[in-house]
Write a structure and sequence with these properties.
The structure is a single chain. The protein is mostly helical. The chain is about 35% helix and about 0% strand. It is built from three helices and no strands. It is elongated. The protein starts with a helix and ends in a 17-residue tail after the last helix.
Length: about 90
Amino acid sequence: TGARERGQAQEKLAKRVDAEGKLRHTMGKVHGSLARAGKVRGQTPKVEKQEKKKVPKGRAYKRLLYNRRFVNVVVGFGKKRGPNSNPT
């Protein structure tokens, strides 16, 4: 079986070698056809942006981060959850 595998590998290599003995690059299909480009974005319904509260700048923003990360921490059981996880 080892000789057969080696023979198959040599055949594949021979297909990629041109007349001068140089390796030819076989162009592979990597990311699909361009006909499907933007398919998902086109399907999703347009949702208008909501008005949000103004985000504090500078020192006030750092204060907000400190309070969010260290002061209002709820210690519970189980795995620690990230800042973007929604309660289930």
